[in-house]
Amino acid sequence: MWFHITGLLLSCNNVGTIWERYISETGKLRKQQYEFGPTFGTSSKMRCLLVLPLFVALVAGATLDFDHYWTAQEINQYIDELVSDFPTLVTAVNVGTSTEGRPIRGIRVSKDNVANRPLVIVEGGLRAREWISPMSASYILHEIVEHYYEFENILDNVNFLVVPLVNPDGYEFSRTSNRLWLKSRSVNGNGCFGIDLNRNFGHLWNTVGGSTDPCSDSFVGTGAFSAPETAAIRDLIQSNSANLVLYLSIQSADQMVLYPFSHSATTNPSNVAELRSLANSVALTLMSQNGRIFTSGGAGLLQPAASGSSIDFVAGTVQPDLVFTLETGAGGSYGYDVPESQMAEVLSETTYGFLTMAEYVAHNKSN
Is 222 exposed, middle or buried (0-12, 13-18, 19+ CB in 10 A)? Predict the structure, then answer.
């Protein structure tokens, strides 16, 4: 049985693009027709991103779509589906285990399993209430894996390691009990729970911007990497440091593209000119999608200075060329609580920003 689907692409500026595909029950694509959308980065034109939930559900085995926020279990289910459907392109990575025993999982994307390409690590879901972050990381996987044939110029030159949900305990608690919950779910005593994972990484830990109050939203933990979630990400980063070229933390929702350092408004990596230029390019790409205003610059300059962030740890210790936080588009009452009705445009917008970075790596950092 074959499905024939025709519709409008939703994320193309000023392009009335028609797409059609024939899709088998196994998700194999037999025909595709579309016009190209706006250019970004330095390469030839890239296609517009597909964001129709029905199409996504069919390709992904009719079990998941991108019109609702997934549970932690559904994120893991999607990882399993990608590994099953694309065994020559992706492998699952067991990153670690959360405080409450949930798996922290990732996906390695490597065309033809070539290990020595430049590596991009994408981290999502560090803070519990930022639901759009793990969905953005999952949507990036949807694009570069399920539509891999559209990104050959990137995948021929770059490998990816994507961890959609670093903080599954806090995420589930935010989903089921307290929408505003930010931290992990460590037991701190005296009825207090959780660590702000973006204050628990080891570079200049607990020097500025955090709290030693275990009940505070900005509690830094009892020591650097005292949270099993941050320790797991540390080990992942260190074990992949030889080829690491770009580290990207996806957070929400200040609409910013930030480079290190978070702990200082005046301290910058030695290649700050390169970081500033690429961050500006990414911000322009993001703004071209839906008209939202994005700002780019040093994290400690554009946000209150705070130590213990993931990007400061990577930039301060492993020191790959490129380290960024992408703060997604905002929505809802608090910014980070993007309504499901606005998910499609934020996911495609964020993915365009990511692809601008990935293209830069492919063109400037590959062997």
Answer: middle
